[in-house]
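TA notes. Do not distribute before section.
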Amino acid sequence: MPLLELPQPYDFEVSTERFRAFGVDRANLWHEGGLHRVVDGRELRIEPAPGGVTVDPLANGDEPVVLTLLGAPFDLDGFYEFAQADPVLARLTRELAGFRPPLSPDPFEALVGSITAQQVSMFAAFAIRSRLIERFGKRAEHAWAFPTRERIARAREEELVALGFSRRKAEYVVALARSDLDLEELRVLPDDEVQARIVALRGLGEWSADWFRARYLARPRAWPAGDLALQKAVRAFYGDVDVRAFGARFEPFQNLSAHYLLTGARMAGS
């Protein structure tokens, strides 16, 4: 199978833990030791290999999607050097060495995921997300392609409610699909403009915008201070602190710090 090299260090098992921690994700499916993702109608199977991963099949145009999904854009070398000055991060970077937080390859998928996860557990969010994928996406062999923006724009809110969405969340998802927000343009905009354009949409607040910058754009300073799990993780490691203000401690690596704190806390409790 074709080898796709990844920036080192990289640990496949730790980096893909998210896809096993909260239940089944039909669009990023963990199956028999490998990760499956549908790209342009073809199902790719990704497995660990020395120096990177094998991808079967691997065609022109697949590499950017896979590299994004596996967190290749993150600067781990710089972060690990920075982390040595913080005893908590220094320990976590040793325990989670090679952890590259996975990224969403698709902006619409990332925002729908944020809406789905609002004010519910991640287990509930994954279950509802998978029902959405099964209802409106396209199945390959094992995995499914996430529904397109155009398909969700044609959906009725009642159809989403039947899948487990609240009435308001169903409204938010359909409204997002039908909006005139240029999701691709967000790639090139500065953080404050990305934040402003997302929160201008009904149902998408600061929390959703923070996670979009963190898990789609891989912006290094994204710090989802309003996230309850992050608040719990920060206070578990550092005591009773103001989590929003505490983000300055991790400048300019707030995004990676948040992911290492979240994953470290979750794996310590598993």
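Switch to the second chain here.
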Amino acid sequence: MRFSDLLGERMSQGSRTLAATAVHLCSRRVSIAPSRCVAAVLVLSAIVLSCIGVAEPQEKKTAQPADPTQLSLDELMKAEIYSASKQWQTVAEAPSSISIVTADQIQKYGYRTLADILRSVRGVYIANDRNYSYIGIRGFARPGDYNARMLLLVDGHRLNDNVYDGALLGTEFPLDVDLIDRVEVIRGPSASLYGGSAFFGVINVVTKGAHELKGPAVSFEAASFGTYKGRVSYGESFKNGLDLLLSASFYDSSGQHRLFYSEFADPSTNNGFAIDADHDQYHSLLGNLSFREFRFQAVYGSREKGLPTAPFGTVFNDARTQTIDAQGFAELQYAHTFQNKWDVTGRLSYDRYVYHGNYVYDSGGEGKPPFVENKDVTRSTWWGTELNASKRLLEKHQLTLGLDYRDNFQQDQENFDAVPFFQILDDRRQSKVWALYAQDEFRLRKDIIVNAGLRLDHYNTFGATTNPRFAVIYMPHEKTSLKLLYGQAFRPPNYFESYYNSSNRTGPSLSPETIKTTEAVLEQYIGRHFRLSGSVYFNRIRALINQQEDSNGQIQYANLGDVRSKGLELEVEGKWSSGFEGRAAYTRQTSKTEETRDPLSNSPTHLAKMNLIAPLAHRRLFAGFEGLYSGSRITLAGTKLDDYFLANLSVLSRRVSRAVDISVGAYNLFNTRYADPVAEEHRQSSIQQDGRNWRLKVIYGFGGNR
């Protein structure tokens, strides 16, 4: 009997009405807050539990997957991932250079945000302007780019919005890191499978399953700068095959009490001191419900952040200048293997992202109240569907076919002064994107795999584009993998770049940017405990979209020209069953414009990373140390920022009692002074980052579960 038939038999008329209302809330093409969709999911979860009747926790023990913390690197090399090719394959066979950060590492290193996790990955660096976190990879982190060149997925669901194409990474990321099972970073253009946002690569955040919680759990954190965080979660696997995970989190930080900016060091602007203007609050919700081949997921997060830096020429030291970012989605997924051996996955989803900026201006120029509050608003809503099918043919071919459709039925940007009301921008648009893709993994010989893929994307604004990917993977030995990779991607300018400050609002004045990448990767496992990896790559980008100021001081976007970059990445990892593990990585790259041969801003030539986990007491007490080195970077003003070294230390005590874990973390342990380059909207060319700070975290799992 199908799941829908079972529900139909056991659902009361009242339950049917509630379910219909919940579905209606998520499917209406009007301005419905994402939190209502998440609430609807929770309602549906309760209905399902009440209707199934036999939904009791499993009593008999079932075989659980092996604990990844107990596996050697030799065993982990055989683990499979899906996101590199939209089919299950080992990391050695995947047509990409891949890094994975596990839940165990997230806990032992004390990572607090997705940005913290990504900062630890080879070739990746993070910048922060005290509002958003920005990712740089292989020398690229362009000012004014809200992470539009990396595709961010949660369990394979696209999170980049349809106005900025942005990916939220810091406290603005709408998912608690405690709920992350692993983070997969797939380097290189992946447009042949994922489309335009996969320009430099893909980040896939995989959430934990219900079986990993096994009941209720709560956590509480206290940290520097008046910071508190809490989480309540519940996960259960039931006898009838139903898996349920529900979680809610809150976060509240006063931020730094006093921040000094020399650019405002004048008596009229409080001598450069911003007081109590750095606050940060968020709340997030997650609901996962799976039954046999069906999976229903909903995610929602909302964050409010004070802006102490006075961006966009706002009044300095006014705590009313702040931004709110709210993002959520609901997705129904179906996965089934048919008798003819086709593995089919279908997705149907609804997404919404809303941004509200409150900016305080001295419109009179006298430096005295009353000031004008300017409202900057973005509302983006879309629904989408994807169908993916994969099958092994003629023994040597693994064929993957797919179609992707996205209806961006709301892409609104608005800007106005509140009192007196004055409309500055009211731009409302819609668009559609559809795509077809195909990939063939051909096992030419036992030791040679040829992987070729092609995707056709059609934008109603730019027409059609095709992007290929090609790989030859040679495995002369079981523990050796040599990959020769080629890929290209196409990124159309997003709606913020095209229309926000553009004088041409009848159509896009920017050209799409393209990238072609050639890369060689070597992965070598040594014994059971060591893994060496290295890659050399060459990127050529044409018509790079770049932020700049025009003659009137307005921030606009223009095609900069062509850019070339080349680089080398090296990494060694070690892991032992005793609990010791570590890795060291080094990256060297250069990225320059073709015309002037000038290096790009915010593009460090050298990156080095060291991570070590050491058991202090067998299986109970662990120390996690992380060292991060970044070479010097150039700001938009042409100034050179010093290189720096950061050290973070976390101590984790597991099962202090049967149900309690405690961790203590010290971040920027040596109180290093360093700054990140920022974009044109700031008077400052760089923003100073936090000094030494700490965090205490307690997790309590009822019945011993986390």
